[in-house]
Amino acid sequence: MFKKVIAIMTATVLAASMLVACGGSTGASSSEPAAQEAAEPAAEEAAEPAAEPAADAAGEAAAATDGDLSTKKVGVCIYQFSDNFMTLFRTELEKYLIEKGFAKENITIVDGANDQATQSGQIDSFIADGVDVLIINLVNSSSASTVTDKVVAANIPLVYINREPAADEQQRWADNNWNVCYVGCDARQSGTYQGEIIADLGLDAVDFNKNGKIDYIMIKGDPENVDAQYRTEFSIKALTDAGFEVNKLDEQVGMWDQVKGAELVANSLSQYGNDIEVVFCNNDAMALGALQSIQSAGRKVGTDIYLVGVDALTEVVEYVISGDITGTVFNDHFAQSHNAADAAINYITGAGNEHNIQCDYKKVTKDNAQEILDSLK
Ligand code: GAL
Q: Would you say residue 127 has pLDDT above 60?
């Protein structure tokens, strides 16, 4: 621990002098950003052991620079403000950045309106404005390399959140020692938990039509997003791994949206009727929409159909308690926003970060829903 504190302090002093020396210059070549070069070797040491949560190091690093953060500018790009989960995320992110010492007026959060061109323009403006760090929730994960290149060329550290860039893109950050990282949770885990919630009910309880299979429909988020891909795949894999036979009746794209979720589930219910035993939704917003349609069709969750989501929105956790939704998976916006802010601070102070910072999802069923609800307040 002592060694780590020394490493962080050394890194802080080193990087602080380099940051002063570089003072807002945008002329550095993208392959050799000077401040990042200086910060990186110390960062590797400060990050030992590898599994150390970023939050720990950040707490110490932030304490070491006391007060300095109030003049630092943070640019935050959110893919779409109307997204329920990202609203919780950005609200908590801003609150925590302020708690850590940033001034509210130096934190600018912008809405990408689900349009990559709009978001790219916002990133250009942040670069022109000389922000000290960028936190970006991409509209399209596939734009990561273009965005990384221009942000690195401007010598600005970058923390990606929520939409994970591809593995080869993350490899580039490591290969080049760039001050770029991703903060999120492994979406495979959330899918697995959804499947397990259903598997734990047992075939007898779920197989209403007694065909020996679990008949389901899948309502997906944005298919460009690994969260949607993995949740779709791993929820079903958990069922087959547990030995169940499955039958997919329908798979539709609801783009994380409640209204679309409601429409799609209404259509599926009118087409497949009582054969639908489980409605899997890649997120809670769509599960809320699904619930409206399930109720309008005269069906009852827990009695003749099951419904699961992901996120643990307050309203959904309340429905899990009342039995109107079977279960959800807590997508920890507290841990993710805090880790993202801590990573941003670590770059500013020169302590550096691992390139991929993960946190865990948590299964939410009737058994622990009250506890989860209390923790959300
Ligand atoms: C997911 C979340 C969804 C949506 C999406 C946006 O992690 O579960 O509700 O917010 O991110 O990328």
A: yes
Q: What is the pLDDT of residue 68?
A: 84
The two tokens of residue 361 are: 């999802």
Is 5 a residue whose pLDDT tops 70?
no
CATH of 189-330, one of 3.10.450.50, 3.40.50.2300, 3.60.130.10, 3.40.190.10: 3.40.50.2300
| Residue whose CB lies within 8 A of the most ligand 1 atoms, among 331, 334, 359, for a mutation test | 331
pLDDT confidence tier of residue 255, bands split at 50, 70 and 90: very high
Single-letter residue type at 196: E
> What pLDDT is attached to residue 103?
98
Distance, in Å, from the CA atom of 67 to the CA atom of 85, rounded to the nearest integer, reads: 31
Ligand 1 atom nearest the C-alpha of 86 is 10
C-beta 83 within 6 A of ligand 1: yes
Measure CA 40 to chain center. 25
Tell how far the Cα of 283 is from the centroid of ligand 1, in angstroms. Answer: 7
For range 177-200, the mean pLDDT: 98
Q: Is the CB of 227 under 6 A from ligand 1?
A: yes
Cβ(279)–Cβ(306) below 8 Å: yes
Mutate to test the pocket of ligand 1, among 87, 311, 358 (most ligand atoms within 8 A of CB): 311
Q: Helix crossing, 34-46 with 2-22: angle to 10°?
A: 170
Domain ranges of the chain: 2-185+332-361, 189-330
Distance between Cα 285 and ligand 1 center (Å):
9
CA of 93 to the centre of ligand 1 (A): 15
Residue written as token pair 């795949």: 233
Q: Is 331 in the pocket of ligand 1 (CB under 6 A)?
A: yes
Least trusted range by pLDDT, from 37-41, 95-99, 209-213, 269-273: 37-41
List the Cα angle 362/366/370 in 5-degree steps.
75
Note the pLDDT of residue 45: 31
